[in-house]
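Trying the structure run again after the queue cleared.
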Amino acid sequence: MTNHKDGYVSTELDHGIATVEFFHPSSNALPAKILEDLAKSIDKAGQDERVKVIVLRSAGTGAFCAGASFDELIAISNEKDGKKFFAGFANVINAIRKAHKFVIGRVQGKTVGGGVGLASACDYTIASESASVKLSELAIGIGPFVVGPAVERKLGTSCFSQLAMDATEWRNAEWAKKHGLYSEIYKTIAEVDDAVNHLADQLAHSNPEAMALLKKVFWKGTEHWDSLLDDRAAMSGKLVLSSFTRKAIEKFKTKK
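Done. Tokens:
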């Protein structure tokens, strides 16, 4: 387990199932260190021959992920640091993409911004009925540039556009399932966990070579994402310095 101030990333391996869990007290937000350790943990599990399948989850029963850390966003003072922060999301998405194992997402509650990107990047996402989604980036003057390719890959351009433009409205779990973001939804978190455990166990007993080849098939056409997401991180890193975005973030923090 890697602990940070008020947060952590942990990995547990049990019978071929690597469970990567992250936590932050601010509704499982994603500061830079959490993002860095998530990417490293997923990459490590993806290369570990003992691991047959990866489960990505956040701790608790509340929000799955509140997205970027506003405290860190407002502290960014130059484009280089801005790009570096947003590259954290790119690194996690690319770690999931390049893992030689299927990644099951366990989404137990609302997810915002970068959290929607994580849920979209997972190969199979199981969620609770309370797991509404929102891409809020435009509301604070940025845009879902880094997570956009992962969201668009799952939902299609039309639904991605809806989420990106209507940045203040939630879409419920039924909407997310209908359009392909969630594979399954359940009323209770206990039912979500049962479904995640059942699928993970099933995959842990499947042919690793076949699953690795299927993973390549599923992600065909994304081989350029290392450079694509790096370019997108630069876009966000520049925009976060604008007076519009800084005022919007401060206004949002005041409301909270």
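The radius of gyration is 17 Å. Worth checking whether this holds up in the mutant runs.
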